[in-house]
Design brief:
Chain lengths: 283, 219
């Protein structure tokens, strides 16, 4: 176990899941999930498909209702009938597997959607903010393109900018790279990495184990709607205590990769991050 | 038998006035039936079951009975039973609008349900209220998507307006039939009537074809 304390442990956690239960008919999607996310922390949720990771993210901003336990965001219990879920969602950015950009709006207008509609910001101010964010994700020259004219990786970067435009306290990524061509995964991961470096609190559902290992501060392993193990990446990827975790990782070929490296060296020599998108050079 | 095409020229103003009424009826009906259809589509998605059922009953009644019967019904029943007296034109407009609203509501409903669930989730996740999600994100996409269907309804409506001639609305059909009755020039008058409908209807049909090509969903 790492002796280093968790990032942000001195403050109250920003997001707490306590014994969360959710079922779809006879299927128990979440069977008592508990963990928390500290401010400034990058928490990666890993585990087999259908293990409840994505469902949990949707419970965290009230897109799905919870049937047991509690989800508490910034001290607000989402199950409290007095809670205005709309206000909670304004503080949580979400990025989806299939981007879900609004196809009838340009890239710029997509990024302006939150500030204009939700924050009621003046149009010129919203545009300044949106252009700044498009620059940040390296797509300012695509501002007036429609989503259909952009590659998957570009669309996902714009979706990230759209979520950031609300200046959220936490960003949630629901398999943000799973629907992308291999050659565009890197540009999205590097945007996410940069966000993490800037200190953004992030909850990331991912199958990209390299990313989880290098960027996460905390890793939560899901299986069959339960958390089977959680800890810092060093623990999960090198000294997993639960056999099911090791099994899952070896299925992804992780064990083989580990066997190649001298023990303990994996942290020192991470696989190189793909180069950032071209236009970032102008930053 | 000799043909006397002069009769068409002689009654040109009556024919053209009738054509004008036909066009006005089409435009006004659509102007009422688009918001009407939208309203019905929303009512059919209401959370309150009685609202939903009432809207469904309305739509199913108008879709499953002949338009001519509906027009007659309004013409005879409204004044006799409810003492509501409308001009023939208003009665025709009312019947057509309700009928086309019912059809449009089905079109809009199909359009609204065709928008992916993820779009709603994305808009909600940004912090939009359900009403904003509908008006800013879902509805614009749905309307875009059903434009071809609405255009087809438009062309059907243009021709169906001729049914109101049965309640003495002075549209193109009614006037043409009146001229025929006065002059007994059946072939000439009906040919002129067909030509007028075609001259007006053909460009509309072509426009619809263009709308179909331009807006057909390719996702």
């Amino acid at each position: 176990m790492s002796d280093r304390p968790r990032v942000g442990h001195a403050e109250a956690p920003i997001l707490v899941f306590h014994d969360v239960e959710k079922r779809y008919g006879a299927v128990e999607a979440l069977a008592g999930v508990s963990f928390h996310v500290n401010r400034g922390e990058v928490v990666c949720l890993i585990g087999p498909s259908g293990s409840g990771k994505s469902t949990l993210l949707r419970c965290a901003n009230g897109l799905e209702t919870v049937e047991g336990g509690h989800v508490v965001f910034e001290g607000i219990d989402l199950r409290d009938p007095r809670t205005d879920l709309v206000r909670v969602r304004q503080r949580i950015g979400m990025v989806f597997q299939h981007f879900e950009l609004f196809p009838h709006m340009t890239a710029l207008r997509n990024v302006m959607a939150g500030p204009l509609t939700v924050l009621r910001m003046a149009r010129p101010d919203a545009e300044v903010r949106a252009r700044e964010l498009l620059r940040k994700v390296g797509l300012v020259e695509r501002a007036l393109n429609y989503p259909a004219e952009l590659s998957g990786g570009q669309q996902q970067r714009i979706a990230i900018a759209r979520a950031l435009a609300m200046e959220p306290d936490v960003m949630m990524f629901d398999e943000a790279t799973s629907a992308l061509d291999p050659e565009t995964i890197g540009e999205v991961l590097s945007v996410m990495k940069r966000l993490a470096d800037e200190g953004m609190t992030m909850v990331v559902v991912t199958h990209e184990m390299d990313f989880a290992k290098r960027v996460a501060d905390w890793v939560v392993v899901f299986d069959h709607g339960r958390v089977i193990e959680q800890g810092p990446p060093v623990q999960i990827f090198e000294r997993a205590t639960v056999s099911r975790t090791r099994e899952f990782l070896s299925h992804l070929g992780w064990q083989a990769a580990l066997a190649d490296a001298p023990s303990g060296a994996a942290t020192e020599s991470p696989p190189a991050l793909p180069p950032p998108p071209q236009s970032e050079a102008s930053r | 038998m000799t043909y006397d095409w002069g009769v068409v020229w002689e009654y040109r103003s009556l024919l053209l006035r009738g054509a004008g009424v036909t066009v006005a009826l089409t435009v006004l009906t659509m102007a009422l039936a688009i918001p009407g259809g939208l309203l019905l589509a929303f009512l059919r998605r209401s959370r309150a079951r009685p609202v939903r059922s009432a809207a469904t009953a309305f739509v199913e009644f108008f879709r499953a009975t002949p338009l001519i019967l509906q027009v007659y019904w309004f013409f005879y029943v409204l004044p006799a039973t409810f003492d509501i007296r409308l001009s023939a034109f208003s009665t025709g407009l009312l019947g057509l609008s309700l009928n086309v609203s019912a059809f449009n509501s089905e079109t809009f409903r199909a359009g609204l349900t065709s928008i992916r669930r993820g779009q709603t989730h994305a808009a909600l996740a940004l912090g939009m209220r359900p009403r904003q999600v509908m008006w800013q994100v879902i509805l614009p996409q749905a309307v875009w998507r059903v434009l071809p269907a609405l255009a087809s309804t438009w062309v059907s409506l243009f021709k169906d307006t001729s049914l109101v001639s049965t309640i003495a609305v002075a549209d193109l059909s009614y006037n043409a039939i009146q001229i025929r009755a006065q002059t007994f020039r059946i072939l000439e008058v009906l040919t002129a009537m067909a030509a007028l409908y075609w001259v007006m209807g053909y460009p509309q049909a072509k426009l619809v074809d263009w709308v179909h090509r331009r807006f057909e969903v390719t996702e």
